Structure formats: structure tokens, C-alpha cells
């Protein structure tokens, strides 16, 4: 009877310990952390079975309990080690705004050869927002034409909210100009529902690129290959002259600029479900969202050229040619590279202030074009 009581108490202890270990993993944002209590319970019942059929285990009830406890701890530490290893795999999302902050003497922004012909007054400065990939170019505009702002005012005037949120902020009247790729169907519908329309001023051209781990032997894909990969028709690298490995095809969140570009490439073919990851919220447990690209040897991801090659330091990826054409400035300018897109300074029609119009006009001037080119983009006429 005493041994049975010990075994019951041991089971309760193991489950409670596993539960709290599971909670700690959940709030740390680890995926599949629910396996811990399940593993502990399975371990317990397996041990209980052998316990009831083994005289030696009956004589060592306390050791059984200790063994279960240790197995839970080992499982916990092993899983954390694995997840930390996965998280250590390089991504293409490490962008530091500080490197491109206007008025910072050590920033990486493009600079004009001569002082800007436009100097905006501090009153009613245009409020800007845009895509992460375009932050260097509109931050360079600010650096050249705005009066020097203290950091807190700068962050109010110049946001970097990513494409989807930038469109939302423009529609809500929180900003005056956004620098983004063309709007998605979702944002066009939102504008229509609000009785608004976008003014799109094309200011530059950029390549949408696909990349893989540098050890991946694949160098080129066709447009149809891209469609087949992201629709789930092709799931292994081998038929594409690669190794016999399953393809990890990462995507971006819905209505982001790069995901919208991918949807255009798909030509109406439905995208397969994107890889997901669980991430923590402050107090609401976990939510599931599109997984960030991680540079596994069998992964494929996508972005815009400048972001993937200059804004993010990752020497472990290589760009793919598409239909035999590499994404470079020459092939972007002459439209030989198939995934070439304009990007825009976007306003709401009828809301443009005098300073907004002045800035837009200057962006299309020779000095505006100079900054666009020096940033690394191809200028549109």
C-alpha cells in the first residue's frame, strides 16, 4: 500500500513538474512545447507497467520517482537546446533602423553631392511611413530636406511600419506619404470602402528575388518552377537539379509587400499553406503566425534585392537566377529580369498639403533621383 501511495504521489509530482515546464516554454515562445507533459505521462505509465511486473522495481519505488523527475528535466533541457539551435540558424529579417536613422552622423544613408534645393519648414512636416526595404531611401529624403529633429520627434514623423501597416496608417490619416510597392487587393478594397483613392507616384524600380542556402546546388529556377514550389506541386529539390531533400518554402504575412509580389507571380494559382510558428503574446498565451525565413540547407525564401543583399548581413544565402536571368541593376533597368516592380510614393488623393506636394515634386527632381540611385535602386522616368 505504501509503495502504491508513493507511485501515485510520484505520478502527480511528475505531471505537475512537466506542466510548469510546459508553461515556461509556452511563455518563452517555443513551438510544440506541449509534448513535454505528454512525454512525462507516457514515461510514467511505461514505468508503472514495468513496476507492476518487476520485483526489483517494487523494491526501488523512490528510484523510479527520481528517474521520472530526471527524465522530465532532461526532456526540458534537450528541447530548449534544439529550439535554440534552430533559432541560431541565420534569418533574413535582422534589420536595424539605427543604421539608417536620419541625422545620425554614422548612418549608412545616401548623401547628396550638393545641399538639397528643398528645405522644408518645421511646421506641418509630411509624416512618412513605408516598407522596411524602402526605409533607406525615404530616410535619405528626410536627411536631405527636413530640419534636424530630436529623436522623439523623428520617430513621430518618420515611421517604419512595413507595407501592410503603412497602407493602414495612410488610410487612417496617421501619415501623409508612404513608400511602398503597389497596393494589394485588400488595401484597394479598404480604400474603396472608405471612399478614398490612392495617388501612386512611381519613383524607383526593384527586383523581387528568391534565395537559397549557398550550399544548395540549385542556381536557377523557371517561373513555372516557382509556381509549382509555392503551390505545393513540387516538394523536393531533386527534380530541380538539387539534392534529395524536402523543400522548405517560406512565405511572408498576408498583405506584406513581398507576399503580395509572390501572389502576383502565382498568376492565380493558389498558394500552399505557409510554414507556421508559435510566438508569445504579452499575457494571452501564444499565437500562430507565418514563420520567418531560416536558412536551412533545403529552404527557399524571397525578398526585394536591396534588402536581401545590403540591408541584411547574411553571407550564407545566394540569389537564384530566374529563367537564366540574374537579378542585377542592368537586368532590372532593361526589364530582362522577370520579377521587376516599381515602388511608389503613395498619398490619399485630395489630402496632399503644400509641403507634401513640394516633397513629391523634389523626389522626382535630379536630386531625388540621385538619392534613389545612390541608395541602390533603379530610377523610373
Automatic annotation (TrEMBL):
Start and end residues of each PBP domain = 157-365
Alphabetically ordered keywords of this record: Membrane, Signal, Transmembrane, Transmembrane helix
Which Pfam families is this protein grouped with?
Answer: PBP_like_2 (PF12849)
Coiled-coil annotated spans: none
Instruction: State the source organism's domain of life.
Output: Bacteria
**Known PANTHER family for this protein?**
PERIPLASMIC PHOSPHATE BINDING COMPONENT OF PHOSPHATE ABC TRANSPORTER, PHOSPHATE-BINDING PROTEIN PSTS
Entry protein name: PBP domain-containing protein
Per the UniProt record, the source organism is Volucribacter amazonae
Amino acid at each position: 500500500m505504501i509503495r502504491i501511495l508513493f507511485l501515485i504521489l510520484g505520478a502527480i509530482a511528475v505531471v505537475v513538474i512537466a506542466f510548469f515546464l510546459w508553461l515556461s516554454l509556452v511563455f518563452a515562445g517555443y513551438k510544440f512545447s506541449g509534448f513535454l507533459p505528454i512525454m512525462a505521462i507516457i514515461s510514467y505509465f511505461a514505468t508503472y507497467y514495468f513496476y507492476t511486473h518487476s520485483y526489483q522495481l517494487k523494491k526501488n519505488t523512490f528510484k523510479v520517482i527520481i528517474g521520472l523527475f530526471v527524465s522530465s528535466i532532461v526532456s526540458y533541457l534537450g528541447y530548449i537546446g534544439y529550439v535554440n539551435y534552430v533559432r541560431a540558424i541565420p534569418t533574413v529579417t535582422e534589420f536595424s533602423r539605427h543604421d539608417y536613422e536620419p541625422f545620425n552622423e554614422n548612418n549608412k544613408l545616401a548623401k547628396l553631392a550638393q545641399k538639397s534645393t528643398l528645405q522644408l519648414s518645421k511646421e506641418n512636416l509630411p509624416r512618412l511611413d513605408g516598407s522596411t526595404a524602402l526605409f533607406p531611401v525615404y530616410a535619405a529624403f528626410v536627411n536631405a530636406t527636413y530640419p534636424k529633429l530630436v529623436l522623439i520627434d523623428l520617430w513621430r514623423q518618420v515611421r517604419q511600419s512595413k507595407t501592410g501597416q503603412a497602407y493602414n496608417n495612410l488610410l487612417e490619416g496617421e501619415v501623409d506619404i508612404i513608400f511602398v510597392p503597389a497596393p494589394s487587393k485588400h488595401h484597394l478594397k479598404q480604400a474603396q470602402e472608405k471612399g478614398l483613392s490612392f495617388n501612386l507616384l512611381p519613383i524607383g524600380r526593384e527586383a523581387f528575388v528568391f534565395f537559397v542556402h549557398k550550399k544548395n546546388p540549385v542556381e536557377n529556377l523557371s517561373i513555372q518552377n516557382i509556381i509549382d514550389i509555392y503551390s505545393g506541386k513540387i516538394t523536393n529539390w531533386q527534380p530541380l537539379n538539387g539534392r534529395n531533400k524536402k523543400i522548405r518554402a517560406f512565405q511572408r504575412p498576408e498583405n506584406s509587400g513581398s507576399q503580395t509580389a509572390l501572389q502576383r507571380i502565382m498568376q492565380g494559382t493558389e498558394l500552399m499553406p505557409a510554414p507556421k510558428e508559435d510566438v508569445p503574446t504579452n499575457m494571452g498565451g501564444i499565437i500562430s503566425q507565418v514563420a520567418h525565413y531560416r536558412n536551412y540547407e533545403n529552404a527557399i525564401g524571397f525578398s526585394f534585392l536591396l534588402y536581401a543583399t545590403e540591408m541584411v548581413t547574411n553571407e550564407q544565402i545566394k540569389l537564384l537566377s530566374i529563367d537564366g536571368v540574374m537579378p542585377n541593376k542592368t537586368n532590372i533597368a532593361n526589364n530582362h529580369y522577370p520579377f521587376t516592380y516599381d515602388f511608389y510614393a503613395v498619398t490619399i488623393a485630395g489630402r496632399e498639403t503644400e509641403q507634401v506636394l513640394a516633397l513629391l515634386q523634389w523626389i522626382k527632381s535630379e536630386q531625388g533621383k540621385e538619392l534613389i540611385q545612390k541608395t541602390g535602386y533603379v530610377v523610373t522616368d
